[in-house]
Design brief:
This protein is of the alpha/beta class. It has a domain of 163 residues: Rossmann fold (3-Layer(aba) Sandwich), CATH 3.40.50. It has 10 helices and 10 strands. The strands form 2 sheets. Strands 6-7-8-3-9-10 form a 6-stranded mixed sheet, sandwiched between helices. Helix 3 packs parallel to helix 6. The radius of gyration is 19 Å and the shape is globular. Bound molecules: adenosine-5'-triphosphate (ATP) and magnesium ion. The site of adenosine-5'-triphosphate has 12 residues, from strand 2 and helix 1.
């Protein structure tokens, strides 16, 4: 299905193991992600999918293994440093400011890109006044473009908490896009959505990938969605990798089928 040219490896995950006391969340996980591809991570509940994304973006520090972006290994990096390297993510449980407008929530994703410092912005200091004003206008233009792209213009001033869940997820995607990431990590962006909302979100994920060339790592439970939009799939089960390949290969893999027995409808 891919019409974008898939490039070289951009994200390389090698032999990652992560445990919390006696709980082995991830055991010796190795996989790669190629530039411009949509790479799905699937697996039953508790398989270690979110933990894997948390290792990639610096929320968790794995006990062993390495992760590199374009050949640059990042060990012991904080989430902000990983973000500065061009990796953005959305969360399984929404991390939006419910009382703030759609526009302001997406604006928070621009913080990384702000050049003038916060003091200058807060006090409009003599040195910073012109720069801060100009910068805010520039940032707003980018944010408005994202709002147009995600077709949420009618809600730009609406507090996020008042929106239906499906639209809140779209705003969360907008916040991540505002970081202009090279790699976008999406943790169940379609969870809790109805069929129509899932179709919309699938289309936006494909559009982000096609129009901005963003590489996407996608955790998703809906196998129909995964088979439709992903280029390659990693399968985790109890913290181990049990499958890796094209959607059709993974679907035919006996170990994957048995891990899913009783959970697929
Ligand atoms: N901060 C933590 N402290 C202790 N245990 C944790 C922590 N985070 C994850 N775990 C454990 O690691 C394992 C993997 O959890 P994880 O959330 O990564 O699974 P998942 O595949 O994302 O599941 P789901 O589909 O339910 O979201 C689970 O046993 C979980 O309880
Ligand atoms: Mg999870």
């Amino acid at each position: 299905m891919a019409t974008r040219p898939i490039g070289d490896v951009i994200l390389d995950v090698r032999n990652i193991s992560l445990h919390f006391g006696g709980v082995k969340a991830l055991t010796d996980i190795t996989f790669d992600v190629r530039e411009h591809e949509i790479r799905a991570i699937i697996g039953p509940n508790g398989a270690g999918k979110s933990s894997m994304l948390n290792c990639i973006n610096g929320v968790y520090q794995p006990q062993s293994g390495s992760i590199s972006l374009r050949g640059k290994t990042f060990r012991h990096m904080k989430p902000r440093q990983v973000a500065e390297m061009g990796v953005a993510r959305t969360f399984q449980n929404l991390a939006l400011f419910k009382g703030m407008s759609v526009l302001d929530n997406i604006m928070t994703g621009r913080n990384l890109k702000m050049r003038t410092n916060l003091l200058q912005q807060a006090f409009r200091m003599p040195f910073g006044w012109g720069a801060a004003e100009r910068e805010e206008t520039e940032q707003r233009i980018v944010v408005e473009r994202i709002i147009d792209f995600l077709e949420i213009q009618p809600y730009r001033k609406t507090p996020v908490g008042q929106l239906p869940y499906g639209l809140q997820k779209r705003v969360d995607l907008g916040r991540a896009l505002a970081m202009e990431p090279q790699v976008l990590l999406l943790d169940e962006p379609m969870a809790g959505m109805n069929v129509e909302e899932k179709q919309d979100m699938s289309r936006f994920v494909l559009d982000v990938n096609a129009e901005f060339g963003t590489t996407i790592v996608l955790i998703e439970h809906d196998m129909g969605v995964v088979m439709d939009i992903s280029d390659r799939v990693v399968v985790l089960d109890y913290g181990r990798k049990i499958g890796d390949g094209l959607p059709d290969e993974v679907r035919a893999n006996p170990e994957v089928i048995s891990a899913y027995l009783g959970t697929v409808h």
